[in-house]
Specification:
It is a single chain. With about 130 residues, this protein is an all-alpha fold. It has two domains: about 1-55, no CATH class; about 55-130, AhpD-like (Up-down Bundle). The protein has helices at about 5-20, 20-30, 35-50, 60-70, 75-85, 85-90, 90-105, 110-125. α1 crosses α3 and α7 runs antiparallel to α8. It is globular.
Length: about 130
């Protein structure tokens, strides 16, 4: 992408506000020619189009995102978004409630596995461990 669109710029700002500068800086530093188009796509589409919309709070988006990722079994992404909850305002109680929904609508095994990841990630966050 030669010219950064307004949506990309907004997306990068939202991405940084949710994931934190350190996370985004590491991701940006790790980009290669192979994944630059993908990184630009998610910054513009996910962060610029969806996460930047005004109708839901970051907390609401965080809860829904974690539930969807849990339901789909995207473990690394679940942990990443749990680590972002201090920036979004989603609480452990919010995540617990979301996992109950995952259990009913996506299956107990998906929720059970995600709960394990969430508990581990929250414990790491509490202890100051970084992944």
């Amino acid at each position: 992408m030669n010219e950064k669109t307004e949506r990309f710029t907004q997306g990068m700002a939202t991405r940084r506000s949710v994931l934190g500068n350190a996370w985004v800086d590491r991701a940006e530093a790790g980009k290669t020619e192979f994944d630059i188009p993908f990184q630009e796509l998610i910054t513009e589409a996910a962060w610029g189009h969806v996460w930047s919309r005004p109708d839901w709070t970051k907390r609401e988006r965080s809860i829904v995102t974690i539930a969807l990722l849990a339901a789909l079994g995207h473990d690394d992404e679940v942990a990443m978004h749990v680590r972002a909850t201090p920036n979004t305002g989603a609480t452990a109680e919010d995540l617990r409630e979301a996992m109950l929904h995952v259990a009913i609508y996506a299956g107990v095994p998906a929720a059970n596995h995600a709960i394990k990841i969430i508990k581990q990630t929250l414990a790491e966050m509490e202890s100051g461990e970084q992944k």
